[in-house]
Prior knowledge:
Largest sheet: 7 strands, mixed
Radius of gyration: 21 Å
CATH class of the largest domain: Alpha Beta
CATH superfamily of the largest domain: Type I PLP-dependent aspartate aminotransferase-like (Major domain)
GO molecular function: pyridoxal phosphate binding; transaminase activity
Bound molecules: pyridoxal-5'-phosphate
CATH topology of the largest domain: Aspartate Aminotransferase, domain 2
Family: Belongs to the class-I pyridoxal-phosphate-dependent aminotransferase family.
Shape: globular
Structural class: alpha/beta
Strand order of the largest sheet: 2-8-7-6-5-3-4
Protein name: Aminotransferase
Enzyme class: transferase
Number of domains: 2
Oligomer: single chain
Number of helices: 14
CATH architecture of the largest domain: 3-Layer(aba) Sandwich
Organism: Mobilitalea sibirica
Distance between the termini: 55 Å
Amino acid sequence: ALTLSKKAQAVKPSSTLSITAKAKELKEKGIDVVGFGAGEPDFNTPDNICEAAIEAIHAGFTKYTPADGTLELKKAVCEKFLKFNGLRYETNQVVVSNGGKHSLTNIFTAIINPGDEVIIPAPYWLSYPEIVKLADGVPVFIRTDKSQNYKVTATQIEAVCTDRTKALILNSPNNPSGMIYTREELEAIAEVAVRKDFYVVSDEMYENLIYGDDHPVSIASLNDEIYKRTITCSGVAKSYSMTGWRIGYTGSSKEIAKLMSSVQSHQTSNPNSIAQKAAYEALMGSQDSVFAMNEEFNKRRDYMFDRISNMRLLSALKPQGAFYMFVDISETLDKEYKGTKINTVSNLAKILIEDFNVAVIPCDDFGFSDHIRLSYAISIEQIKKGLNRIEKLLNELR
Ligand code: PLP
């Protein structure tokens, strides 16, 4: 019969996309929309990286590569892991993939058997539960709150452990909260992971985008026992403004790397050859562009935080990394706009886009139905204009 895959049909279409589509539709009509939805830096990929790719094309580096990436790039990844994260991985522990999202897909394909549970602390990046379910895993959510800086604690993790617990996903710096786990917090989490014997999938995609003095800690670097159980996942997308190039990578045990590599060899052959040359330059070349981007993001973050902190009905923590602000809008939900109660975060987002031409991300699909995410990967002028509009709505709420 012409029935379709139940698994594919169970995938939730992304709510962020519907707001982004609406914003695009309005923009095409010539309406001046401010979009706080951006999940990527607004800077061009740095010139030195683009040049490396152009050179690769001219040199004919345009054919299949090894499934898990070129040796050259894997060596660069090992060097980066050692210097930046204090992590010793050999090249046979590294798998280069077609982006961070692809790495996560590989990881869960390699470790999950049907029914295995994966702990996902909320707020979470909305793709985690879907990726876990596609690999036949069962997401187990833990709600955190503002008083704990939206960071999950070892005690909370231990409370949801069962004999089906296979892994925990940790994301630091975090999308959407911008929070970074401290060494002490990670040590406590690592202790539970080792004692209860599950994997930690450490998504460190935003590791370069940090604004304080504290360098984020990679949980795998804490001790040998947690190193064995961790799959460290990162990529060039966010740090080097290379979202379209599609290169991610992992460091793990040899056994897991081998499984991921063989799965990948059948599914996508290899990551794009030209993008691998570009990623090599990103990791090994000058890091000046990263510093320049961070400086700009930092200014925007300060400005946005100042404004939001002074707005009625809203509150937020100052992000420590990434380029998102996670804003608590719970106080708006029982207020009325034009005689109708706001009620849900999607209604708030709908009013903002339709009546004020501001696109924000309602965070129900990030596990928080009373928060929105504002990205500061847009110019400070746009941020100012957008925040003025949000403030105007807030002043109209009764
Ligand atoms: N992990 C997190 C937390 C993200 O926010 C993203 C992208 O939005 C990714 C991973 C995936 O990045 P990539 O573009 O390399 O697939």
